[in-house]
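Appendix C reproduces, verbatim, an entry submitted by the partner laboratory led by Prof. M.T., so that reviewers can inspect both the input and the predicted structure.
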Amino acid sequence: MKKLMLNIILWTVSILLVPCSCKVKDRSDSNGMVADSSLISIQNKDTSKTDTSTLQKEELTKIYTQAISDYIKAVYQKDKIVFDTLFFGKRAFGQPDDFPDIALPETIEKTTIRLVNPVDGEKMQRERKSRVYINMIGWVDKETASFTLITFSNGFEHKFDCYIDYEFNKTQNKFELVKLRIETLIRDKEGNLERFAIYKDGKYVGDRPIKE
């Protein structure tokens, strides 16, 4: 079910053309924000476990903020990218995976955070193609939290996907990071989709075929 929802979201966003801005520091990686695009790789999860409605806004805001912070740090660790501003899609289509009704901090990890609707995002994309837009999809309940951050830039080109999983530590009364990976699509010399390159802790760990 989540796979279907992710495909619908990706299709919808690609029509609306929404963006975020970044600057690259120290190096240009062939798998980074200024290089090849990627396709979304989808986690096979059971949506029946999603229970965000039972969580208070304060708790949701905290775990979403934590995920964005971990995303920013992971991208810097991999590609040395320093973001100025990140634009997040404020999806409100009446679907279970809509962006929750929360207000994010104005800055996270010294990066300006902005929530935008698709119409405003389309305008921003026309103004500056270098802006980066993130379609953030979360599945949160009282015991686990999982996020997919689908990253677009360069004229709404799909760049890479970041997958983050947490488990709730009852003793510490907080969510703790369990695993995080970034998957970037690699293209051949002709520009055809070839494979996903997988990175963990900033290091390349292997490939995944386009079709599994």
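The two ends are 18 Å apart (CA to CA). Additional entries are available on request from the coordinating office.
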